[in-house]
Amino acid sequence: MSAIADGSPPASAPARSRQVNPWVIAMVVALTTFMEVLDISIANVALRHIAGDLSAGQDESTWVLTSYLVTNAIVLPISGWFAFVVGRRRFYLWCVLIFTFSSLLCGLAPTLPMLILFRTLQGAGGGGLQPISQAILADTFSPAQRGMAFAVYGITTVLAPAIGPTLGGWITDNFSWRWIFFINVPVGLFAFWLSNRLVWDPPHLVQAQKDMRARGFHIDYLGFALLAIGFGCLQIVLDKGQQEDWFESGFIVRCAVLSAVSLLILPFWELRQRDPMIDVRLLGSRNFFLSNVMMFSLGFVLFGSTLLLPLFLQVLLGYSATQAGLAISPGGVAILFFMPVVGALVSRVDVRKLIAVGLLIGAAALFMFSMINLQVDYWTMALIRVVQAIGLAFLFIPINTAAFYGMPMIKSSSASAIINLSRNLGGSFGIALAASYLAQQQQRHQSYLVGHVDVQQGAGATYLQSLTQSFIAAGHSAVEASQLALGSLYGMVQQQASMLAFVDAFRMLGLLFLLLVPACFLLRRPSNDAAPPPGAH
Length: 537
Fold this sequence. Notes:
CATH superfamily of the largest domain: MFS general substrate transporter like domains
Oligomer: single chain
Number of helices: 21
Order of helices and strands: HHHHHHHHHHHHHHHHHHHHH
Low-confidence stretches: 10-18, 528-537
Number of strands: 0
Radius of gyration: 25 Å
Largest sheet: none
Strand content: under 5%
Structural class: mainly alpha
Helix content: over 70%
CATH architecture of the largest domain: Up-down Bundle
CATH class of the largest domain: Mainly Alpha
CATH topology of the largest domain: Growth Hormone, Chain: A
């Protein structure tokens, strides 16, 4: 543990421990990021098993997800502040330890309240892993190499949500829901051991901490309170809104008001602080601001479509959870292949063009999803998912590269915290709004179809009579056959209404990507082959 106490390598350390191959560091921090991002989605499919094993209701068990997301949303934006105050390496190692230890406690939890408490602790530990990992990569690699470095990081943050539900379902079905937490323990300990030996704070960060201690430091308590209430309540609204019927619930209304008031005050307060919890001044950079908008949209579409696809396959096509996961998994293979390709292209091609290509490919895939029907086969769904994954690969790395262009290295932790917050918030909004939009569109289409199905005359009456005769031929009485025929016809109407709702939802996500294309060319072009801008060292 003593190694955590200092962020700079000891003078007695061998030269090889202080001059580590940056790709080794990239793999180490990618491992912890993958573990954390995977845990956001892996528990979703195990809720029913958790509720049954711990004698809890299904609604109560959803707090296993919400508790993690709330503390994760609070810690993530202030991880840059923690990294600066206590040392990035020290904060990173403590996050790995907290996440690993709390994972063990989650697997051992005897009751649901205890599990929720440990998930809260796990979310707090995981909140610092994504942004600090990205900040370490940004400082470890030169601007010309960042594209490939972000490719490694991108594979973890894009692939993990895609395979999380499938992996979680397989572990739960074959072992126990507790093992979705236990598997983090050996991975976390191994990652801690490697990070403790290989990751050190850069000299500019060590010097900045010394300067900060020399001039004195003020803790922004009010800023922390505003941030915790604002993002914590916002996450509750997004995660529980659909379940609680949104603003028909007094609890959701109160959380929404608290969040809105806190987040409206927060930027004005933080601008007045010498040591702000979240450095909102960074959003004054055009590239950084636009990159955050695009990263929010990327998270929105990625998580929104990841919610819609398994639902469509399982609810309308009758796939099992494993079959639905297998239909989506080829997209993960495509990401593994194309992320390094895009990482190499970033240093050679205008990132604005790469982002535009990614948006167009992603939009094309989503519009392809909007043209499917109930007769669609497995390979068609898998192929469209591959096309969508290629579009995502062309977005993640160029957006991050554009965001860090011109960013002083001393600000890399704060910048990484903000852009990761944007992606996570986009994902939360994407899941919440996609689910809500799907339900609303299903009701709208159902009302329309029911109003246009005439069972008294015409084609509707003929089809109903045919169904009735089929049930009579199967041995039912005339009264039973009539009731079964009406029920069957209504089920078909519901199925078609659901199909149309999914089509609308995919089209909505595709339009979002199309609307972002002009914004690409408002970005300043990062010249990766040139020297870094002033202040970058």
